[in-house]
């Protein structure tokens, strides 16, 4: 039996294209003592993976070269175990990478209860993107009921949760997204008060019109010109959560720097967010969000591709901003009948 | 009798030089009804005046052209009054500009009690620079005793007060200044734990050696590369007060932008400071600092020039970072024997 994985076909430059990736196969790995083999059901594609491929996401990492497999979270099922704490049939989330099967020692691996919420949500609104939104809006910004929250990439798993968590606390949410289609979903399905298409002519005027009294909080996934535009609608003493730099993940050289006069003149409070600091909040986050998913107060969109061979093309779409919701690759069925 | 004033001789470009300024004279102005004439004793020179001359300091202002007089705070004495609340002999601080005499209606004018502290300090450690430091360290950063505060331009009136207020709260202060001479004063006279000369080779290594455990708070007067260097010694979850952009007052085109990955990776809290927001804290600030000056716990350095004709040259030195302490021009004696 074979494991299919995606590796870089060449070093990346700028926005990725499908030809940057190729599928290779290898024999299915055998778990050693203390290991288990996970059959991947969902592969998570996230913008930070682009900067990780370039060796820029965390300090001290090397860029990936031809033949290297991108790292990523996957949701899957244990199919063979030589680990005392993980039985076959158990659903887990781990850093399995862009492949159909992956080994784990249990490190950076969490058990997932499929009764709590749909399996795929553990990579999205119930996963790292959702915890990021929780850390931003609940922990760092401490949103309260009379506030207005602005968020970019509003239909993505982080942005959609930023707005929805704000609304659960009684605040109002205004989104920014890359098409009228996305904006319609953000307002109609997710309940944001407004959503502004940043690709339209006159975006800044439309943003100002959507926020006549300004925003109390801006959650920034993007940096660059989007951050500058957001400062222009931020209230005096407003809060900015610095969380992502999407604008430059493809090409840092094209990044537009922040004019520090903007936060000074707005007396802004800016806070840098690294989601791994908030692991201790995961139980509270998961309980609240899983309940919200079950009772319909929390909604989400997914943009699915089928099969490991689509990972490169789907990731390329994501990095062009063409995804509509959380980008996932479906690698196999949720149940095989054996588990 | 004549009033001598300094005006721009030409539009400014880059770092100012003495030839950018010239002295003109005019008849001494007569106060109208509700006005009073102030004889200026001290003229305050501050880096922000450079960006104000360029029309960049506050939004909606025009750059100064040839013949325009720079605005500035002055400390002086009322010599003729047609205002019911201001008597001749009264000491005041107002925005008198680069000239020997100025009219006031009482707007943006404060009475100064010469018994509380030396007159010149009302433009420095007891004035706007000191209030800026108070707003930063006491109000926004909320310094406490087990912390270490890093400040650039450490011998300037803002920086020296940032460090000294931190020390009054039991914290430790580390400074950055532009010469070994300044650094020696910062440590020996002001009591900072350490001071690092940013013009030395290997500055960053020296800064790291001075802060082996990092800084909890960085007060930024400068922006640019200095801010990036400060981030490299900031503790995780540290605080950065964004207060000045000295690095670009002379020439914004040469400014080095902030890499937003730095505050994100440091989980920093950055706060923009505009000193005029803290007018309501001025009484508490003045009481504490005037007492500190009188009992010697608060020290300060002044860099004085004599005569209005020196204002341009003295300001040029300030904007090259060659001042040693608060830059002042002495325009006349503190007492004339008439008041």
Quick summary of this structure?
2 copies of one chain form a homodimer. Chain A is α/β, with parallel strands linked by helices. Chain A contains 10 helices and 15 strands.
List the helices and strands and how they pair.
The structure is a homodimer of 339-residue chains.
Chain A: E1 2-8, E2 21-27, E3 36-44, H1 48-53, E4 74-81, E5 91-94, E6 101-104, E7 110-111, H2 128-140, E8 148-151, H3 157-168, E9 172-177, H4 180-188, E10 194-197, H5 203-210, E11 215-220, H6 224-233, E12 234-242, H7 246-249, H8 261-265, E13 269-272, H9 282-294, E14 302-306, H10 311-319, E15 326-330
Parallel strand pairs in A: 8-9, 8-11, 9-10, 11-12, 12-13, 14-15
Antiparallel strand pairs in A: 1-2, 3-4, 3-6, 3-15, 4-5, 5-7
Helix pairs in contact in A: 2-3
Describe the protein in words.
Two copies of one chain form a homodimer. By secondary structure, chain A is α/β, with parallel strands linked by helices. Chain A folds into two domains: 2-124 and 300-330, Medium-chain alcohol dehydrogenases, catalytic domain (Quinone Oxidoreductase, Chain A, domain 1); 131-277, NAD(P)-binding Rossmann-like Domain (Rossmann fold, 3-Layer(aba) Sandwich). The first copy, chain A, has helices at 48-53, 128-140, 157-168, 180-188, 203-210, 224-233, 246-249, 261-265, 282-294, 311-319; strands at 2-8, 21-27, 36-44, 74-81, 91-94, 101-104, 110-111, 148-151, 172-177, 194-197, 215-220, 234-242, 269-272, 302-306, 326-330. In chain A, strands 3, 4, 5, 6, 7, 14 and 15 form a seven-stranded mixed beta sheet that branches. Chain A has a six-stranded parallel beta sheet with strand order 10-9-8-11-12-13, with helices on both faces. In chain A, helix 2 (128-140) packs across helix 3. The longest helix of chain A has 13 residues, at 128-140. The radius of gyration of chain A is 20 Å and the shape is globular. The relative contact order of chain A is 0.16. The mean pLDDT of chain A is 94. Chains A and B meet through helix 8 and strand 13 of A and helix 8 and strand 13 of B.
């Amino acid at each position: 039996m074979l494991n299919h994985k995606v590796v870089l076909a060449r070093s990346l430059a700028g926005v990725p294209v499908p030809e940057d990736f190729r599928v290779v196969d290898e024999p299915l790995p055998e778990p050693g003592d203390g290991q288990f083999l996970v059959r991947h059901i969902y592969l998570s594609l996230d913008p930070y993976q682009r900067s990780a491929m370039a060796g820029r996401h965390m300090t001290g990492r090397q860029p990936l070269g031809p033949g290297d497999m991108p790292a990523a979270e996957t949701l899957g099922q244990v199919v063979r175990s030589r680990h005392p704490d993980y039985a076959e049939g158990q659903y887990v989330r781990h850093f399995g990478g862009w492949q159909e099967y992956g080994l784990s020692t249990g490190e950076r691996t969490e058990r997932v209860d499929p009764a709590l919420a749909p399996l795929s949500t553990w990579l999205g609104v119930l996963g790292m993107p959702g915890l990021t939104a929780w850390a931003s809006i609940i922990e760092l910004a401490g949103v309260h009921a009379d506030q207005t929250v602005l968020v970019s990439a509003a239909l993505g798993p982080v942005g959609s949760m930023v707005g929805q968590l704000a609304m659960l606390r009684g605040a109002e949410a205004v989104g920014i997204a890359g098409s009228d289609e996305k904006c319609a979903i953000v307002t109609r399905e997710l309940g944001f008060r407004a959503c502004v298409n940043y690709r339209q002519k006159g975006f800044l005027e439309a943003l100002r019109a959507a926020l006549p009294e300004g925003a109390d909080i801006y959650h920034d996934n993007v940096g660059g010109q989007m951050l500058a535009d957001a400062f222009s609608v931020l209230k005096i003493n407003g809060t900015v959560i610095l969380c992502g730099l999407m604008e430059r993940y493809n090409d840092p050289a094209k990044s537009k720097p922040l004019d520090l006069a903007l936060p000074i003149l707005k007396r802004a409070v800016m806070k840098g967010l690294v989601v791994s600091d908030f692991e201790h909040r995961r139980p509270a986050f998961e309980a609240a969000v899983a309940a919200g998913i079950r009772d319909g107060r929390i909604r989400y969109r997914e943009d699915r591709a089928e099969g490991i061979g689509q990972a490169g093309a789907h990731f390329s779409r994501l990095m062009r901003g063409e995804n509509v919701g959380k980008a996932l690759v479906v690698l196999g069925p949720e149940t095989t009948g054996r588990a």
